[in-house]
User: Fold these one by one.
Assistant:
Number 1:
Amino acid sequence: MREMDDADPLAEELIDLGRALPAPTVSPDLTAQVLARVTADEDVHVVGGARPATPGRRRWGRAKIAASIGALVGGLLLVPPVRATVLDWISLGGVRVQTPTTSATGSPGTSTPQSVSPRVTATSPVDEDESLSALKQARTRVGLDFAVPASLGGPTSIMVLHQGKVVEMTWGTGDSALIMDVLTGSLDYGFLKSARDVEWTDVRGNSALWLPGDHDLQWIDRSGATQTAPPRTARPTLVWVVPKDGADITYRLEGAATKQAALALAAEVGP
Amino acid sequence: MSEDPSAEAEAMDRIRAGDASAYAVLVAAHAGIATRLAWLNGAGGEAEDVVQEAFVKAYAALPGFRDGAAFRPWLLRIVINETRNRQRAQERRLRRDDAAARLDARTSFVRDPAETAELHDRHGRLYAAVSALPQVYREVVTCRYLMELSEAETAAALDVAVGTVKSRLHRAMSVLREELADA
């Protein structure tokens, strides 16, 4: 195994060091998780179908060109059915962004929350007290003291999705609504977007991702289980991660008019 | 973990024939070394994620494998790249104008005091010195000596020519010797 021409004492010491270092344990779930991910992938993208022209090396070359990858905190997986032959991955917090080389054929649909509790329906004007009380309940429900931009006031609606792991808040309604999702880093769920352009930025020193164009948004499960709802089209979105109490909270803010507006709102959500 | 090339080749055939579950054979065979490399190359607490990512990415490349091509060097290359990406991401999280903090992040990313506390004095200093090396030198020393990979495997894992491995290693060792002499 070793091809040492000369006996170099320092080399010998380094080899000893390598053998002395504690051996990290392999995760017992590793095989199961890898298989769940690759078998799911096989169903939907290209292992059985169109092959990358020159896989391996070319694919890796693209990954080098793609934006640097942030820490993947939440789980994420499952590629939605798109006719991409080579996929680049960018991840930040609980979000995985897939940028296909060909255009995605996913059609916009509406996402259906799997569990809704509690919900404050839109009235005009929003009853601040009721809204803030619902917010407090949501915090208790997910066990997370997340923040919201103070300047927006109480959300129009608050939903707790995916078995209590995601809080989705909305201000306003329709096309001009602002939507903010909060998910903890230890979640099984993340969401996948297919986007053409992504920009790295930061919110108070924490890495953030700005997706300037419309893109497909879909919730997925770390174990590889598909979501029943088809992807919906999301408007420009800012994603950022705030470290809190040793864990990472991922925020997703959709619907701000400009990147600057999104960044200003995000800056209000402090640790 | 001992390697069984024929079992591996058979598993790859089954995968190409459509039986994805045969990938379990490859995962079992290489999980140990992949985890070790991820950790030694600085993944720290993210080593499990790095390894999982690497196996998933390596799987996607299988259709293009030439018959008989070895899986392990390709897997290790992905592990190296994943750890590099995460280190870059960690550096990005710091203030861009704070060079000292970034340097600190780079060295602390690789060296985890809690994990190396058990090492006796000389090993501890050696490990610290390796951790403080510039990335290209640290990686080649990690592969060749800490992991005891062959020159050919190191070249594959780092995606460079064997000649480059030799020259980098030579320079890395000079830098290391100087580091240790100053200590």
Number 2:
Amino acid sequence: MGQITSKIRLRDAGITLLVLFLAFGISQLLLPKTGVENNSALIFAAAVVIISSLTDGYLYGIAASIIGVFCINIYFMVPYAEFNLSFNGYPVAMISMLIPALIVCALTGNLKKHAAEAEEREKKTRELFEMNAKLEKEKNQIEIAHAKNAVRSNILMAVSHDLRTPLTAISGSASYILSERKTEIPEDCAKMIEDIKTDADWLSVMVQNILSVTRVNDMQKGLKLRPEIPEEIIGSSIAKISRRFPASRISFVPPDDIVLAMMDPLLIEQVLINLIENAVRHSGSTKPIEVSLEYEGGKVRFLVRDHGKGLPEDILNQITEDSPVMVERRGDSIRGMGIGLSVCQSILKAHNSRLYAVDAGEGTCFYFSLDAAEDNIYDETENIDH
Amino acid sequence: MMKQKILIIEDDRSIVHFMKRALEDEQYQVVIAESARDAKAIFLSHLPSLVLLDLGLPDQDGMLLLGEMKMQHPEIPVIVVSARTWEDEKVKALDMGADDYVAKPFGISELKARIRTALRHASLIQSGTPAEDGIFKRGDLVLDVPHHRVTLAGERIHITAHEFQILELLFRNQGKVLTYSYMINQIWGSYVSTDNQILRVNMANIRRKLKEDPVRPKYIETELGVGYRMMDE
């Protein structure tokens, strides 16, 4: 900024000197032709006007008019090349040079100010226009991205729904044979039909997982969380797992206190189903899986603990660091584990929460916390007394 | 005894196939409609004992068909069978008069149990009020309405007036899912906001008093996000 003003000052000084020099030269040329009644005063006046209009502020115009007056006095008045104070009316000449200089400076100063303002306005308008165009472009891109997301989400949802119908037929037909006609078929075939049913049911859970994720993604303004009784959610998820894995052992003792937690109940049920199912299928232990609840400082914590062989280290690290669990294929024995855990992570994220996993020495303990509902305690003591 | 007739409204043939076989094994007579148009005609001409309705039909939204059937013959129970998952869909179907809701995929024994419950419920309503003496029983639990008394395995348990009303409401609709909003309206009246926290806390208290195991309840089942059901069989 300072550099720029000193540059402008240097330029203005140059202009002043140059124009004065030109005026001096022209006057010098004209002097022999016009004699005493020369026009040097007019030429210098013109120079002062030009300088005032080309430079910034009053300084250079005033300086030029003073120098001009001296120049005229010294070089272009009798006696030449001599400063003559005795000359009559000298102060008048001085003032008559100064006044136009000041007026021109004031006028051009104004003009310059207006011009500068106009230029500034134009610049701002241009900037606004450019910004507007940029915003418009970004808006379009966002809209396209949203539209793309919506399309993807819709396709995913439609496909998942459509998968359900054949899965219902496969699982339902298998369950019909197993429950009504088992005695009519050889034992090994019955075993195969059992496998068909198990796998169809597993696929249904995966479809439900995909639908859960599309639901989380669809709710752009965030999920509508409602106060729910945690033990109802836990009870329901354990009941569903027990139906699919009748041999599994899962323990849950509800706490004495009643605390409601804010959640989307079906999504949190899905989280618990995934965690419990992982424990049932992959922990490799027959000891009971323990599900429990803890209340602490306005939070409700859900815990799922198994006594199995522990998580693969990379998955444990990903959960600990809250980075997405990779869903790449890891061999059929732990099929779906990554998908289940990453669905848990995205559902919990939508609840402003996250999944934790700790190595519990023997087995793994998964947990997550949800906000407790406000006004949690209802005290209804009025009993029927007869 | 005349066979009870079940109308299956479903456009997927594989599903129709196994449902038909399973229901015929149970000595029901089965009629099939693969579109809403067929369903309306068969419904009015056969007047089935029960309808199994798939909400995703090729020619009409199953929800509209449900409304029409319930308008014409509210006494015929309708069980909705649907691939749609979320609870708002279930609540809507139940509020429109569906007697039950089975989500796809379902097991055959679950479906048969629901059908038996719905049929029993319908016949009880037709033959007069259930439990005319006002004494309801399920397992060890007895609700004595005239004496305002609840006993569990013969032992009196103390419950609040609201808890009593909730139990009575569930017993009077045994086997049927009651939505949160329906129960709140019946017990607290419509002035209570949509917030169903008060119902939920009451229910949690009832369950503690009945010593319910949340995983294997003996009396009251939870339909997550939808409501509660007094178990039947």
Number 3:
Amino acid sequence: MTVLEIDHIDKAFGAHKVLDAMTMEVPEHCVFGFVGQNGAGKTTTMKIALGLLKADHGVVRVCGEKVTYGNSTTNRHVGYLPDVPEFYGYMRPMEYLRLCGEITGLPRSQITARGSELLEMVGLAGVKRRIGGFSRGMKQRMGIAQALLNQPDLVICDEPTSALDPIGRKEVLDILASLRDRTTVVFSTHVLSDVERICDRVAILHRGTIALTGTIAEIKEQHRHHGFVVECATPSDLARLAAAEELGAAGISHTSQGTTMVVTITQTPTGDTRSMATDLAGVTGRNGLTRRPTIPPADPAPTPSPPDQFGGQLLLHALTRLNITPIRFEQMEPTLESLFTEVVR
Amino acid sequence: MRGYLAFLKKELMESTRTYKVFLMLVIFAVFGMMSPLIAKLTPQLIGSVVSAQMASAIPTPTAVDSWTQFYKNVAQMGLVILVIVFSGVLANELTKGTLVNVVTKGLSRALVIAAKLTSMALIWTVSLALAFAMAWIYTSYLFGADELPHLGVAVLLLWIFGLFVLSLLMCAASLSTNNYMILLITGAVLVIGLLAGILPPAYHYNPLSLASQNMPLITGAITLSDIGPAIAITVALTAGLVTGAILIFRRRLL
Amino acid sequence: MNGIGEYVPFLIPLIIAQLVLMVVAIIHIVRHPHYRFGNMVVWIIVVAAIGFIGPVVYFVFGRDRDE
């Protein structure tokens, strides 16, 4: 089921168009990272979804119900954690939760039971102080407790970690990650390590539209740079490797720095590359290598081997032939950061 | 309804814990006690600085002087304090953003305004009643129990005027998030009323009569029907201001 | 002089109320030394010197909102 559905939302502030036919879907039971630069329109999107702002065009649905500006009834499905949550400083945690519960219409007995359970979860049980004296981290945890009070189907968090120190950030992320089973969490951030740490899905907002969205695994797979990092023990080893004939093949490029080499495979394994591998096997043969190369000359299977495997085998082959033992050999993983910069550029 | 009551409870808790109730009760109690004493002691205080024969020329103060002091203090200083104490009723929440949570949890904006007005009205009512009770006790002890028939009606008019001022304040508060701006708007409207008071016949219709014609009413110089139109206008304006506050606040960004 | 002396019983509650107002404000000023503006000395002078308005202005405008 789709918990939050944003359908071609436009929003302009004066002449400045913040959202432009922005479309996004958040499925049930996931932790959804909503990423964008400062000022990209993350908060605007969230406020529209909460009925706190009016969209110029487009529809937002929460649990299938349309969000209306002003008194939105869809908010009964939603828990909201503002970026810097502000509470009544003169209240104690339980008093605040009681106020929230009564406004939402929870039965009295349930308010007390759920309230103390949630305060326990966010580590504020037994805190008798007034909220006014809380640290930012405590306020953020208080914010999570109040957002979860009405057992929402969707929790919207606006940059929940941006104002926190490393410990406060870890605490808040751990709590958010633990919510996966009971609700759906959408949180906006510009801190990509936070997304990588707890999200299973991500959407990147850029120039008012979603530039990239999907599960983290999918996105990484789609944007994989086929390549390897090889680190040799000495620069001379690296120089020998760089001079290897295998690396001179078409579709393979490499750059070296110090004792580290980055090998990029730009060509996908079509029939051509496979024949290239065969050619290379011939090359090595001529160089007097006793062992047969590991690459089968012509794969009879209809599916071609993925470029990574092809290139990896090639590199390993070169290393073995030159008697070089690398101290590091790894396949390049796209980081969210590199993806983000690529998308936003 | 439950949301309204919960928010009203919150408003009263806020007013108590941020010393607003304390300030209002103590200051209004002081007004109540002070006014009869000032009336009673004025001749003595003057007598201590001027000659005895001049002092004897000063008429003996009566209960009327006591109530004159009362209406002067409460209608001027008292209302100023009421407005200052509650000037941040909405601005504090809007600048801090505390209402976002409450509204996203499903409390309608109209009920936010209603609960805030109710809370302020309750505190105003109790404060004015306390001041009136203290003044009444002191006046009876110091001046004897003179029968002043319109005492209750006069204070009732002042009470209505207080509600009018609160709704005016609320309307100003829904327009601006700046405390001083709110005070300025409220003050400006009241000053317009004061200026209108320069034309004597205007008092029939001027809402300010509810806070300035109390003594003439008590002494019988005017009758209630003389300011009947003013009462009707004040009530209508109050209703209009409350509606206006709600309509403006509905369109506000939180 | 049948002066002010006979009114002392009436004056005492009045004076107590005024003192309570001032003392509560001063205690608050001393115990919460964060203000939206001004400093402790200024606020104590304001509260002690300006009858009703002093404590009102302190509690409404001077007091730190989070305290």
Number 4:
Amino acid sequence: MNHAPLLKKLLLACLGMFAFAFALVPLYDVFCDVTGLNGKPSLERAVVSDTVNTERSVDVSFTTHAQSGAPFKVESQQYSVAVQPGAMREVKFSAKNTSNTDKIMQAIPSVSPGKAAKYLHKIACFCFDQQPMKAGEEIEFTLLFYVDTELPDDVEELTLSYTVFDISGQVVAKNDEAAKLIAN
Amino acid sequence: MSNVINEQATEHAHHDHHPAKGFKRWLYTTNHKDIGSLYLIFSLTMFLIGGAMAMVIRAELFQPGLQLVDPHFFNQMTTVHGLIMVFGAVMPAFTGLANWMVPMMIGAPDMALPRMNNWSFWILPFAFLILLASLLMPGGGPAFGWTFYAPLSTTYSNDNTALFVFAVHIMGISSIMGAINVIVTIVNLRAPGMTWMKLPLFVWTWLITAFLLIAVMPVLAGAVTMVLTDKYFATSFFDAAGGGDPVMFQHIFWFFGHPEVYIMILPAFGIISTIVPTFSRKKLFGYASMVYATSSIALLSFIVWAHHMFTTGMPVAGELFFMYATMLISVPTGVKVFNWVATMWRGSISFEIPMMFAIAFIVLFTLGGFSGLMLAITPADFQYHDTYFVVAHFHYVLVTGAVFSIMAGAYYWLPKWTGNMYNETLAKWHFWLSLISVNVLFFPMHFVGLAGMPRRIPDYALQFADFNAIISIGGFAFGLSQLLFVLVVFKCARGGDKAPAKVWDGAEGLEWEVDSPAPYHTFETPPEIK
Amino acid sequence: MGKMRYALWLILVSLPQLALANSQFNMRKGVTDISNNVYELHMTIFIICCVIGVIVFAVMFWALIHHRKSKGAKPAQFHESTKVEILWTAIPFVILIAMAVPATKTLIAMEDASKADITIKVTGSQWKWHYEYMGEDIAYYSILSTPKDQIDNQAEKTANYLLEVDKPLVLPINKKVRFLMTSDDVIHSWWVPDFAVKKDANPGFINEAWTRINEPGVYRGQCAELCGKDHGFMPVVVQALPEDEFATWLADAKQEKANAAAADAALLDQTLAKEELMTLGEQVYMASCAACHQPTGMGLPGVFPALKGSPIVLGDVKDHIDIVLHGKPGTAMQAFDKQLSIKQLAAVITYKRNAWGNDTGDVIQPSQIQAAIDAAAEAN
């Protein structure tokens, strides 16, 4: 009896499932985008909204957290702002490298409640790029965002959180400036 | 088809008609019975080693306070206990039973791929040597739980994680090779006339299990690979700093992990479905629905994984979906239990040891099923999750479920394997001591879990003290009782009353048509299927 | 036999009552509407399971007793019945739907995104909780306060063994409290059984949960997700106060914070004695460092480095201060600049440099710590 055809199929199935495990990575991101799973908002620049819902006001609060060992102090200048869905809003963040060496900072946004994540659109955000910061340097960043008019009615407040990481050690340079900083 | 089998059988026989002598026989063997025995002995050894680790855990938890081991070592014990019991004890035991019984049950001369069979066993001891050796190295073995959640297993683990990853890869390759062999054997080597709906249920459940293995073991391999590259090669699959997500690890892991749970229970269903009719002297009730129930459990197992992750923060729609899907599994599982009861109903029941274990399985596994159903209810799961209630649940399904079924199968087929009857008195002692102690061990865990004791802690608050003392006593008793099993198996292999070909008067199936002990080669000419 | 049956009957009857009556055996009802709903749900499902179990096993044991070979039972020939099989597929289905309805209701009630009265950011780290009253400028760590000698069985264990902390989370009753969970390192899980709140704290992400406490009191829970060596030693303690008392507490906390800042400022001009620093340093070390580096300073080989004879501890003071202040990224070494006061930092660094035979003789003053904190800014 020739077992080779069946054996080949089964081995292919194994390889396929191994590949599938890795395919789960991009699939997961798509899934997160669609469902707002884990409050993982898009890291892409959004397009500007053209309608504003003046009937409704939503509280958006900000919180930041420097991961242990990340020598950054990042703070929003306002704790919370009330916005009308669709209307653009600007919030300033101050960020400081508190160490005495040059560092590269990466901010990772997360939105709560998770189902609101896909309705918070960022036009400008320091989280889009790796941010090189010189020793002791203090920079003011601008966050430009709006809340989608489609935001579910039961969401009365949402929180945008930034977790700040020091990625100087593990950086695969995304932009020239960061690369230059490492070269130095 | 019969000609082809004949040809192959003769060719095979030509190679090693008589077993070689000594160690070489076992090292070079391609005989399914030899390899089956190797798997079973290996599994029993691992069961004792993993059990010894459980004894360390229970000794530390006997009283509040830290007495024997430090918390870091305690975590290594819970982790390695889990890994050994899952990958070293339960899975190889089922593979061993499949090796021994599947060819005989379908009238095949051997497994379809005998040399691969040899490999799939012989890499296994090395996997566990690596895993166990890591315990002795500086920093100790894996201490992040058998579920190895990132980033505890990546950024925050020690360098021996590489050994863990390597060991899991080898275990995975071994399981995959075993599964491929089972599938090819069942699909290609059935005796003429052995149609699909005549297959013994143990063969059916193993066929489905083998497909599950092929579907998910590569996913586990993917998960450990990602852990390895995250830790050593600067990838960011699970690291938020690089755009990854630690929760994604849990999704990938449980995509493997939930079908894995059924990998450890479907063959058990097959064993119980073989034993209950034998000692009820009545055909299995609802054979076809058993096959369909097993298949639907296997299919459903792919869409329920996130019920392990209700507290990770999921959208409510996701929680509802996974809750409903999980609850749904209780329907085919219920069908199985009802079928077993209906098989016993108006049978002519006798209580030999395999039947005793099978009855204990049905009751206690169902108990584990009930707590599983409770765990499926998302809002209540927020309270149960990661407590001893969960520990109680999965030990009921895995110890009084999977392990009891393996014991039942071992007693059922031991006379066929060795040609001798086991010592009935010792076996009875083994059964009753195990039955009582296992419940003293795991039943109070429901209570401490509901009262709020988290799992995987080396020390606990005072209100949990009484129950933990009882649990530990049950644990020691259960552990010691298993030494009796070793004794029974040892004595049975050495001698005892001679067993006839058909050991049990109510038994059906091709394995009872060959002599006891089963000759080294069976069904070199395929049998006639009525 | 009669007696045994009676005893068995007694146990069977009393077990569920025990389970219902005593929280040592059962889930607690808790002190929120949600936790009560969850308890009711749990009991409903539990009782349904018991009833099914009793029926199925009664049938089975009836067969085991009456259809025995030794009683001369002859096996029947039936082995399938489509009708029965459809029936026992359909009935569980209906029961499941009956279970799913209240479960769905409770779950949706838990998912409430309406505006909260107060928001607490809960940050887990190895192995302590950090609470931040958002918008209030109050934040602190909450650390296990059970003394080491109780854990090591050298002292009598007290009532709240392992379930007590130095500073509990203080919350008002009758207010909607929103929790935002995140983590500093690995995954933790914040759990208070009395609120039926258990939510994972994932590094890099925030998770949300909420509660509304009905009764004042102290509620205790634990970290529920394996988070490394001392996972069993990071309890959660919540003190729920009536609204007015909570307002007073909040005002006091703010005052205390101002006082502490003033005290720190005053420290800058002082020179503290070595003995004082060593005594305080040992306390701080045991509370904040000994979990990893061990009370002996020997660490755990391969996991946590030893401090005794460590090149950093014996080397340049500046580097030593730097690693304590900022931690080491990608390891369990945390940044302590926000966890400890400058006096505590000075003391603990002094202690490390002089304990266990690390006889550097160095005495570190709070002003040196402050200087190190300021140094980065001046470096620019």
